[in-house]
Predict the 3D structure of the following.
Amino acid sequence: MSQWYKLTFKQLQPINLGYKKHGVINETRIFITGQSIWGALTNVYGKEKGWTKSDYKNQQNQKLFENITCFYPKIGDGEVLYPKYQDGEFYLGEMSEREFRYEFVTTYLSTAISPNSLNAKDESLHEIDIILPQDKDEKKQFFWVGYLKIDEDIEIPKEIYIGSDSRYGFGLMRLEGEPIEENFDYEVVKGKYNNNDYPKNEPISNFVEFNNQKFIGELELLAEFDFSENRPKVKQNSSAFYITVGSSIND
């Protein structure tokens, strides 16, 4: 029997939740999409079970963790910071995006070195925005909280790598405590509400496919990814516009 569980992951390393690229700067999201956390759980679970490439592509295996929400930060013992738009600006809880980035996001610089000259290779410099495991004063620990619907006999991986650039020592998170059984009122697949099953007139915490609804917030073009390869690839003909998290839908 399937049951919704509340999961809390403790962030152990810096993470980059790939978002926008501006020249050499790779910006990070400040929340984890359901698709990203689904990919991380499926990847680790498959490795623990010794899956082959064909196992990863198996439709039933891909559905094991697909009923999952987006995940949002919790700072120390505080409340989960759910998204909203206020005065035209994106917020997590009562913290504006600008405030959040100032306190918890920094930039990692890297460049490739030419083995012959030991100088930096041309056009190899890039900057990666990363969310720190603690605030910049190292006083507040970072956690990520979301919901997963899963059969009781499926064991949830204890450690996962989330985001891009894990080869730099980024992305490790560990399940904190035991999953907690909780009711969740909506059907969600990879951080997207199903059809019209979403809260009205209040900030949404998962994406909603845009079908000419009236809303306050923003639109984003999202694509489905194939996580069965070492480097995730965009699935063909999978892109669509979605009303982004924090928006309010009025019809």
Remarks:
- The first helix runs from residue 34 to 49.
- The first strand starts at residue 2 and ends at 11.
- The mean pLDDT is 85.
- The chain has four helices and 22 strands.
